[in-house]
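Retry 2 of 3 after timeout on previous attempt. Resubmitting structure tokens to design endpoint.
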């Protein structure tokens, strides 16, 4: 089965940087869009950034100019470079991918377990 594993979370001071990674593995024929979502305590999960298989990106307004999403298709990995971090960026960050599995023409959604990012002094 498909697995998404995030890494790179941790504690960082305001203004600092962090780089998240998410590697996909398992029964995967192809991956279309990939993205990062986040969920802060007592808040709904929100989309942070997405990237298509061709490299087209989209960002939530509050992270534009600070975060950069990228991917390595050969490694089936998506990254999120986070700069100028703010306390309000504190959340569990989840990786998401639209995948096509063997013998299926449909795209399915896969999620990682999440990695915690804490921005605090």
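Retry 2 succeeded. Sequence:
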């Amino acid at each position: 089965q498909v697995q998404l594993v995030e890494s790179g979370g941790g504690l960082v001071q305001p203004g600092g940087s962090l780089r998240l990674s998410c590697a996909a593995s398992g029964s995967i024929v192809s991956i279309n869009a990939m993205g990062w979502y986040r969920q802060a305590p007592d808040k709904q999960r929100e989309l942070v950034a997405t990237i298509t298989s061709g490299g087209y990106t989209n960002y939530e307004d509050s992270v534009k100019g600070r975060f950069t999403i990228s991917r390595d298709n050969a490694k089936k990995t998506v990254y999120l470079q986070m700069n100028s971090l703010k306390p309000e960026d504190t959340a569990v960050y989840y990786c998401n991918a639209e995948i096509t599995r063997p013998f299926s023409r449909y795209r399915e959604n896969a999620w990682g377990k999440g990695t915690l990012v804490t921005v605090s002094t």
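Attempt log closed. DSSP finds no helices and eleven strands in the chain.
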